[in-house]
Amino acid sequence: MEELGKNVSPPKVEAEQIADIRLAASKMHGAEKRSFQAEMVVKYGNGNARQGDSTFGWSRCAIETGLGERRTGIVCLGAQAANSGRALWEETEP
């Protein structure tokens, strides 16, 4: 059993695993993608967003947001739907 307080190095990630993880992340969007990125960074990068950036090529800001969502349990929402500029069909044709 590992002692608390000891620095444990993350498992090594092979190039094929990195490609598979990148492919999986590319199929996701929004909060689901950030959650996945955060989980992979915790598992393979000791929860360090910079290591996730250099290892997987993901945005550090997105990883940090995912880690924050994971820590607090609060999901950040984007404003894409509010700012799309196009009214819903139901609104224009009542």
Overview of this structure, please?
The chain has one domain. It contains 5 helices and no strands. The protein starts with 14 loop residues before the first helix and ends with a helix. It is mostly helical. Helix 2 (30-45) crosses helix 3, helix 2 (30-45) packs across helix 4 and helix 3 packs across helix 4.
| Spatial gap, N to C terminus | 65 Å
**Overall form:** elongated
Quote the average pLDDT.
86
Helicity level: 55-70%
- List the helices and strands in order: HHHHH
Defining key terms:
single chain; 94 residues; mainly alpha; 0% strand; elongated
Topology:
Blueprint: H1 15-26, H2 30-45, H3 49-56, H4 60-72, H5 89-92
Helix pairs in contact: 2-3, 2-4, 3-4
Please outline what is shown here.
By secondary structure, the protein is mostly helical. Helices cover 56% and strands 0% of the residues.
